[in-house]
Amino acid sequence: MYLNCHSYHSLRYGTLSIDDLVCQASALDIKELVLTDINTVTGIYEFKKKCEEKGIKPIVGVEVRKGSELLYIVIAKEFSGIGEVNRALTSYNCDGVDLPLQPDFPNCFLIYPLRNIPKNLRDNEYVGICESELNLLIRPEFQRLIPKMVILHPVTFSTKKEFNLHRILRAIDNNELLSKLPENEVCSKREYFRSPKEILDVYRNYPQIINNTNVILSECSFDFSFETPRNKKFYTGSKKDDFRLLTRLAFTGLEKRYGKNHQQAKIRVDKELKVIDELNFSGYFLITWDIIRYSNSLGFMHVGRGSGANSIVAFCLGITDICPLELDLYFERFLNENRKSPPDFDIDWSWQERDIILEYIFDRYGKDYVAFCGTNVEFKYRSIIREVGKVFGMPKEELDELSKYPERVFRDEIVQQVQKYGKLLEKFPNQRSMHSCGIIISEEPLTNFTALEMPPKGFPIVQWDMHVAEEVGFEKFDILSQRGLGTINDTVKLLEEKRGIKVNIKDTRISKDEGKCNEFLSQGRTIGCFYIESPAMRGLLRRLKCDNYKVLVAASSIIRPGVAQSGMMREYIFRHNNPDKFEYFHPVFEQQLGETYGIMVYQEDVIKIALHYGGVSAADGDILRRAMSGKGRSLSALQKVKDDFFASCKQQGHPADLSAEIYRQIESFAGYSFCKAHSASYAVESYQSLYLKVYYPLEFMVSAINNMGGFYRTEVYIHEARMSGGKIMNPCVNKSEYETTIYGDEIYLGLMLLEKVGSKIAQLIPEERRRNGDYKSMEDFIKRIPIGIETLQILIFIGGFRFSGVPKNELLLKARVLLGDYKPERRFETLFEEPIKEYRFPELKRNIFEDAFDEIEILSFPVSCTPFDLLQTKYRGTVMAKDLTTYHKKEVKMLAYLISRKHVPTKRGTMYFGTWIDVEGNYFDTAHFPDCLEKYPFQGGGCYLLLGIVEVDFHFPTITITKMAKMPFIPDPRYAHDEEKRYETQEKMKEDVSMTFRSPYPQEHEIGLPRVKNL
Asked: What parts of the sequence cross the membrane (predicted)?
């Protein structure tokens, strides 16, 4: 009876989750159910599982539409039938091939609506007849089709409220006011579940229609094994040849990594190869190796991270750069005999090179076999308010107000409707998008399992997310990108290009535990370095006096919310600084976690404690691991683990309060912790960037600027370059490139930093210069570059023509005389048809600081001087950042420039942590509590006078602010005669503001464990 059911995966159409759909069918004792979402198979695998749990026979298909026009409903006789419709949808989505009007799908049944019946119906083709259409059967043209008709009772919603929700979804989809939504865009008001008896009663006079419907239901099935691995099986073509090649490559790499006679490494390689072979994962390793081999052939850098770094075979193949022996990483965390699904390698490339790697994978393994995982982008409540409000006709101003205060109670009836339906839409899928990094490489054509779609980024996606992919039998390859790796890569290239220096940064021996680097590390001098540049991380490095690789590995993990939120970050800092002043929580902690002072730092540590202290089973340990990595999180499964943990602790005689505290710590890790190998991978990359920063600071900072990445805004990296001895030069049309570049110690800012200069012009300027030589003058520049007056003025103001020796004022007058109102595309017709007249301009004097205000206007920060030089006050503070550790518990007054602040909620209101530089250019940190912020709030970017008390916490000083005031700049000399504009420009000074909504970390007295010995 129910041949046409929609879930909310029929995007912006259906209103029922798969669970709701199946539960409602079960409540009516329905025995067969057909899921036919619109142009998608997103929900079919979840549907099969849910139906079988309820004793319902699952049948699947697709409702095929072109826009809002229903073409036909396809129902798969067996699983292969899904592939037939998937291929047609894929051609339509990805190649623009029109949907066939009468497709040849031999392993499917097709049901046509009355308004779209083909001339001749095949054996597997039927006509669907709705209840409202039964009166049409008196017509001769339809009477003759009764032997080919089936009951069509679509299901789209379940209540009147949900029907209204469906209408709202259709209005959102059509970007139309609800009141103007056409009827043909909306489903029938009868598309809800009715009992089988009711429906049969409606069609009682047409037994043949009922019989045809039952025939379809009886002849269809959905047989699918969730246990079968679906990834590409072999690299060479056979298991035997794969293992032979993997073994040869592993032992070749073993000799390269460890030398000829390293017995411990050889034993570990043999052991791992045995497990890899038994689990049939040789092909997976070789495919990953093949991708890395291609990357290396192009000279690209990559970082293999995640649990894959636990494998010595991965290390020997060059997939990772982490030695598992050095860090005592155990292979079982990555692969073990109980694991059925393939392992999961996470591999990073530079953001500039990732697409080249992706193109290789799609070309090498075939577009029919490779795709990105999809992801369902859900409706989010604040954006829902705007979407729903728009279709109700609310004006933008009201929507702005409503989205700011979504929970406020409004009397207006329309607003109440918007809030009511907005709440219902929360968590609904809104659109499908591309997973940021997860790629599937399949053994069979992917269209056997899903239709493919083509999002704007240009790589096809499957119609389900990574969790469904894993359930179906696919493990993704994570092909990631990051800007930190781009910075390292670009620095190495820049050194070779500009100075002829070749640095083999892949040789991690040069950048691990190197003396000068360790000194920088322990002082937190890590701005620009991957993962270790944020204020919190730099503070942690100083508190730990981190001066070696192994401590950095631990620091990379304890900064994560899991450890920090449990309060154990603070405890780790204490124990690291006072190794003789603590006691272990329990002997198990000493035995299992001695290396980290008895603190759970990594995912593995949590599992160790759950097993050895809690006594939970290995299976429960794996549930914990998956919960902590965010995979397959099941609240019911976690609750069972929790119950088992406490029952086992009680049985072993552990104190209840100790067990409760330990489980509190375990729980805080869920989804927010690293495995040790992942931390080690991060630490290696952090060291690589630090090595380059220490020994080649100017080239490194230029690369950081060009990669536009990192914790801070561009200005901070420019400041770092200046502090390292670089001379910062404004963009110049004869010296600058599109990106920032360096000549000796002179750093020329890139034209790309000029926001109001279009990227095409910014790229054309250096290209034209390379083709035809330097620009001789501004006039020569205008002849060669199609530029308008506004863009030309930006270049003049920033000093782009200073090589000419002509003052800015004179250049501006000339530009206006020469260009006036002309259009750049007509420059060859109208410009310079006659020799340029020489004009005599009056000599115009400029204030020394006019250039600085021009720079703030264009770049948002000054280049020709510091922000301190522009202050009205000559006061520069009584204490400098470098001396703060000597002022513990003392009040200090400082003048400082704001770099960044971080918002943290507390029970008493918002507090902030600030990062600043003093007049000497050194960084320091502040804390601002809610009561102080009420009287002395932040007022945007710029310089402030600060008063506060210094607190030195394990070598790291923080000033708790009691008063602060923003300091005024001198009046803008460019607007000497315009009172209103004289103080406008300083408002363009920026600050970095980051938000967190986590609760403050627990303090020592809030953690219920014994920790400090009574000495």
From this structure: none
Per-residue pLDDT of 973-987, as tens digits, reads 988 888 888 888 888
Q: Distance between CA 305 and CA 435 in Å, rounded?
A: 18
439 three-class SS: strand
Q: Using CA atoms in the order 826, 830, 831, 835, what is the torsion angle rounded to 10 degrees? A: 160
Question: CA 9 to CA 37: how far, in whole Å?
Answer: 7
User: What is the bridge-based pairing of β-strands 923-928 and 956-966?
Assistant: parallel
DSSP three-state, residue 850: helix
Task: Say how far apart CA 599 and CA 612 lie, in whole Å.
Answer: 14
> How far is the first Cα of the chain from the last one, in angstroms, to the nearest whole number?
79
725: left (phi over 0), alpha (psi -120 to 50) or beta: left
**Residue 999's pLDDT band (cuts 50, 70, 90):** low
Q: Which of 1006, 324, 940 is nearest to 678 (CA)?
A: 324
Strands of the 461-462 sheet, one edge to the other? 302-305, 346-350, 477-482, 429-441, 370-378, 461-462, 452-453
Q: How far is CA 656 from CA 804, 971, 973, in A?
A: 80, 67, 71
State how far the alpha carbon of 674 is from the alpha carbons of 211, 305, 422, 554, 679, in Å: 58, 11, 36, 10, 6
Give the whole-angstrom CA distance, residue 66 versus residue 68: 6
- Closest among 770, 976, 795, 945 to 874, alpha carbons compared: 945
**CA 489/CA 692 separation, integer angstroms:** 10
pLDDT in tens, 514-533: 899 999 999 999 999 999 99
Q: Which helix (H) or strand (E) holds 842?
A: none
- For residue 897, give the H/E element and its range: strand 891-906
Tens of pLDDT, residues 684-696: 999 999 999 999 9
- Spatial CA neighbour of 16 closest among 26, 27, 5, 2: 5
Here the tokens at position 754 are: 């000029």
pTM: 0.84
Q: Are 349 and 302 in contact (CB under 8 A)?
A: yes
Helix spans in 298-367 (H): 312-316, 354-365
Cβ contacts of residue 138 below 8 Å, gap of 6+? none
Q: What is the pLDDT of residue 842?
A: 60
What long-range pairs does 638-642 form, CB within 8 A, spacing at least 24? 638/670, 641/610, 641/616, 642/667
Q: Is 184 helix (H, G, I), strand (E, B) or coil?
A: helix
Between CA 261 and CA 701 the distance in angstroms is 42
| Count of beta carbons in the 10 Å neighbourhood of residue 376 | 19
The full set of domains in the chain, from first to last, is 18-219 (3.20.20.140), 239-365 (no CATH), 370-474 (no CATH), 505-684 (no CATH), 712-859 (no CATH), 867-994 (2.40.50.140)
Long-range contacts of 633-642 (CB under 8 A, 24+ apart): 633/670, 633/671, 638/670, 641/610, 641/616, 642/667
Task: Report the relative pairing of strands 125-129 and 741-743 from DSSP bridges.
Answer: unpaired
CA-CA distances (angstroms) from residue 727 to 41, 63, 715, 720, 721? 59, 65, 14, 11, 8
SS3 of residue 924 by DSSP: strand
Radius of gyration of the chain (CA): 33
* Residues in a beta bridge with 712: none
Classify burial at 930, counting beta carbons within 10 Å of its beta carbon; exposed 0-12, middle 13-18, buried 19 or more.
middle
Q: Are 379 and 173 in contact (CB under 8 A)?
A: no
pLDDT tens-place string over residues 916-974: 999 999 999 999 999 999 999 999 999 999 999 999 999 999 999 999 999 999 999 98
